[in-house]
Design a protein that fits this description.
Mean pLDDT: 83
Order of helices and strands: HHHHH
Number of helices: 5
Strand content: under 5%
Length: about 100
């Protein structure tokens, strides 16, 4: 039986563990850096880690993705679903909050 939170999305919210800065913010980071602000100051302004700013200003070349076996992806999905279920049970993530967010 599927979890109630299965259809709720956390992508793009503060609970999403992926990308933290929008495209406009990324452009602002490079502008602020050109104006002489330190990486630490910029990180404080945007509320993110200094490493995030470093990766924006000096991106590392991407390595080819390692081929992963089925067990790896199964475990990754399981962790994601468990985290989502925990957020739902704690009341942080709910259908009512999602509905009011989209109306505003």
């Amino acid at each position: 039986m599927p979890y109630k939170c299965e259809k709720l999305r956390i992508a793009g919210t503060q609970y999403d563990l992926r990308r933290k800065l929008s495209d406009d913010q990324i452009r602002a980071v490079s502008i602020l850096s050109a104006q002489g602000y330190s990486q630490r100051e910029i990180a404080r302004m945007f509320g993110c880690a200094k490493g995030t700013i470093q990766n924006i200003l000096h991106p590392q070349p991407r390595r080819p993705q390692l081929p992963r076996d089925t067990e790896y992806w199964t475990e990754a999905k399981r962790k994601y679903r468990n985290r989502k279920q925990t957020l739902f049970k704690s009341g942080v993530l709910s259908k009512k909050r999602r509905a009011t967010k989209t109306k505003a």
